[in-house]
Design brief:
The chain is α+β, with helices and mostly antiparallel strands and 496 residues long. The chain has 15 helices and 20 strands. The radius of gyration is 24 Å and the shape is globular.
Length: 496
């Protein structure tokens, strides 16, 4: 199916014209542009609206980037219902700032990935609850029973927790309304039942439907139009539906298991794709980038997962004889080629990589590293130094607790020790509680060592100035006559 051309300026858009293109990384490492038309976007928003009972009185959070489909859900969920959108820059506000905004802005629908939610829920459980939040909507990663337990501690008794599933190619596909009394004990919370005009099948490796456990395939008239200018990728992922017409089948690459009550449980990726902090991560991209180092002979990347569900990337490599690149050297190489969420937390040198009988790398046989030991030695030994005063000692204690390492030096880089944006938010929240200074997240990127961060903390404490208020965007509702007219016009398009 070929996407129709964009309308001329001033012309009304037809249902089949492209509304947006969002890029996501493909298995080859080349970005894939997911093209969605107006008809599909309106369908997703109708399903989201009807299932969650969104209305003009709601106030929706906007925490993700505008360039991902989670942002599409929040933006159009507010716009097409005359509701209010409450955008928050998580990096600028910090965890405590996000919690304050949820309360101050009277947010009624909270939406994020489970990774960010866990940090927000931890902060909320220590202070005031956002009593007006009636829905907590999670998606993009696996939700665990411990997330349900955290929900009960952080939000009001009448609040409802919703788990969802929908890749960029089919934004709203399945939803599950969590039962806090039962689902707290689950290892993995179900992703639920298909939404209206959507059917789901589990496929065997040979593509046969009707499996109890298999690849999740979505059948609907509203899956993505195509991968933009990628005919081969489109043919591989999108198949014609049995009924013909607009109905097609999208093979997600995600594995699922059918539960006795008819819901689906997420069972990971079919290939080596995973998600870290809500971002798709292609293991092959990391390996290809590391293999470009002249001293690396072989490499395999894996995902280490803690008992609490936190995921970190680990790179196993074999060096050429007579050479031994340091972890810092490999990190510097990857930083020039990959985004921050794809930089491994640990680099483990191996004498050889285990192989399967067919000669492929046997990832399941790779030894699981003691991650705390690996991260504790991540920095160059020559750069490590002991804390010199109480401020540096307190910061070192915070870093060890947040990063899960046994020792840090004052000149060790937070991100070289395995830190990432979510851990940085948690660390800065601990800094505020310990020292009474409210520092933006950007401070850590500018001063990523204890030595430099301690200088900032001392200066802020000495100035004794109250923290700058978090900027609050205009809270005017999207319920103006103009927007109501726009919503009515778009709804009419949907009924065509």
């Amino acid at each position: 199916m070929q996407a129709s051309q964009a309308p001329a300026y001033g012309d009304a858009a037809s249902p089949d014209q492209i509304a947006y293109i969002l890029y996501t990384s493909g298995s080859t490492g080349k970005p894939k542009g997911v093209a969605q038309n107006h008809r599909n976007v309106l369908h997703f928003m109708a399903a989201y609206t009807n299932n969650l009972r969104l209305g003009p009185e709601d106030r929706l959070s906007l925490l993700p980037s505008y360039s991902v489909d989670a942002g599409v859900m929040d933006i159009y969920g507010a716009l097409l219902n005359g509701a209010t959108l409450c955008p928050v820059d998580v990096r600028a506000a910090g965890l405590d700032g996000v919690c304050r905004r949820l309360i101050r802005d009277g947010v009624t629908v909270y939406h994020s990935t489970p990774t960010l939610y866990r940090q927000i829920a931890r902060e909320l459980s220590r202070g005031s609850r956002p009593e007006r939040v009636r829905l907590v909507v999670l998606g993009g990663e696996e939700v665990r029973g411990e997330d349900v337990a955290a929900f009960r501690r952080a939000f009001g008794p009448d609040c409802i927790l919703v788990n969802g599933f929908g890749p960029t190619e089919s934004t709203v596909s399945l939803q599950y309304f969590v039962d806090p009394d039962r689902d707290t004990e689950r290892r993995s919370v179900p992703i639920g039942f298909p939404v209206e005009r959507t059917a789901v099948a589990l496929l065997s490796r040979g593509g046969r439907p009707g499996q109890v456990c298999g690849e999740i395939a979505i059948r609907s008239p509203h899956v993505a139009v195509e991968y933009w200018r990628n005919a081969e990728g489109t043919r591989a992922a999108f198949l014609p539906g049995p009924a013909g017409g607009r109905e097609r089948i999208y093979k997600t690459g995600d594995m699922g298991r059918l539960l006795p009550d008819g819901t689906l449980e997420f069972r990971g990726r079919r290939d080596l794709q995973t998600k870290i902090q809500g971002f798709r991560v292609e293991i092959g991209e990391i390996e290809a980038a590391l293999a470009q180092h002249p001293s690396v002979k072989e490499v395999a990347a894996t995902v280490w997962e803690s008992a609490h569900g936190e995921k970190r990337l680990v790179a196993h490599f074999v060096a050429l004889p007579g050479s031994a690149p340091s972890p810092d050297e490999l990190r510097r190489l990857l930083r020039r080629r990959l985004p921050a969420h794809m930089i491994p937390s640990a680099f483990v040198r191996r004498d050889a990589l285990p192989l399967t009988p067919s000669g492929k790398v046997d990832r399941l046989s790779l030894p699981v590293p003691e991650l705390t030991q690996v991260l504790a030695g991540a920095g160059d030994a020559g750069d490590s130094a002991d804390p010199s005063d109480a401020v540096e000692r307190d910061l070192a204690d915070i870093w060890k607790r947040v990063l899960g390492v046994e020792r840090v030096g004052t000149r060790d880089d937070f991100f070289d020790l395995g830190g990432h944006s979510i851990l940085a938010l948690r660390m800065m929240a601990d800094v505020e509680r310990t020292f009474g200074v409210n520092l933006p997240l950007a401070t850590l990127f500018e001063s990523p060592t204890i030595e430099r961060l301690a200088d900032v903390v001392r200066a802020e404490a000495a100035s004794a100035q109250p923290p700058s208020p978090v900027p609050v965007p205009a809270t005017g509702s999207f319920s103006s006559p103009f927007v109501r007219a726009l919503a009515e016009r778009l709804s009419a398009v949907l009924r065509r």
